[in-house]
Write a structure and sequence with these properties.
The chain is of the alpha/beta class. It contains 9 helices and 9 strands. Strands 5-6-7-8-9 form a 5-stranded mixed β-sheet, with helices on both faces. The chain has a two-stranded antiparallel ribbon with strand order 1-2. It has a two-stranded antiparallel ribbon with strand order 3-4. The longest helix is centred in the first third of the chain and has 32 residues, at 13-44.
């Protein structure tokens, strides 16, 4: 890349590459320190669980890195739903009981057009986001052919406020009410930061505090290439 200042020409490509490389290194170092902190908490948390609780709650904040927020959200929701059961089947006499299970479907911020979490056997979709732009929500809804979706939003605003803001902003763009209503009907649930805090507290009461931290460590290592996935699974 070349720029011209007065009569002089400068090639700033090398400087830009160095800046990008340094930024990536700084972020990677920060994430490695995060994983190390989690591992240390895994040890001391056995005797001081309150430190784990404070650590996890501290990661549920609007200014937290988006990737960390997604990882922590997944870990909390996984164990919040863990013991919830449904009965289902194709014949009334042959219903089976199954626990809800949440799956993380890929890397965070991957820009791959995918959905962040999927729940079995209900088939619920979850999308984690930090934006309040209704166009992003509607785009996600379009990507899955207007299938119902739950948005996990990195915001302290109330769920009612988030829904109203989305609908009001959309109504200013789409003058036909039926179009807005069709998209809004696809939003199955909105989960904000206060809701995640409540669900974390519920999971802790059920005895899943250490398991939530273990899941954060596993997902963090995968996300930040801390070590090979095969090693983690072993």
């Amino acid at each position: 890349m070349k720029i011209t200042i007065g009569e002089a020409n400068f090639n700033i490509a090398k400087a830009i590459i160095e800046i990008i490389d340094e930024y990536a290194k700084t972020k990677q170092d920060a994430f490695q320190r995060f994983v190390k902190s989690c591992e240390e908490l895994q040890e001391i948390g056995k005797t001081t669980p309150a430190k784990i609780e404070d650590f996890v709650i501290g990661l549920l904040a609007p200014n937290v890195d988006a990737r960390l927020f997604e990882i922590v959200s997944y870990s909390i929701l996984k164990y919040f739903y863990h013991d919830q059961q449904i009965f289902w089947g194709y014949e009334l006499e042959k219903l089976k009981k199954e626990n809800l299970k949440l799956y993380k479907t890929g890397r965070t911020n991957a820009n791959d057009g995918g959905i962040d979490f999927v729940m079995k056997p209900l088939g619920r979709f979850f999308q984690v986001t930090e934006t309040l732009d209704f166009k992003k929500y509607f785009l996600d809804i379009d990507k899955i052919q207007k299938y119902p979706i739950t948005f996990v939003i990195k915001s302290n605003a109330s769920t009612q406020n988030l829904l109203k803001r989305t609908q009001d902003n959309a109504s200013r763009t789409y003058l036909i009410k039926a179009i807005v209503d069709k998209y809004m009907d696809c939003i199955e649930e909105v989960i904000n930061i206060p809701t995640l805090n409540d669900r974390f507290n519920d999971a802790v009461k059920q005895g899943y505090l250490n398991k939530i931290l273990d899941e954060i460590v596993i997902q963090g290592k995968v996300e930040f290439n801390y070590e090979d996935t095969d090693d983690i699974e072993e």
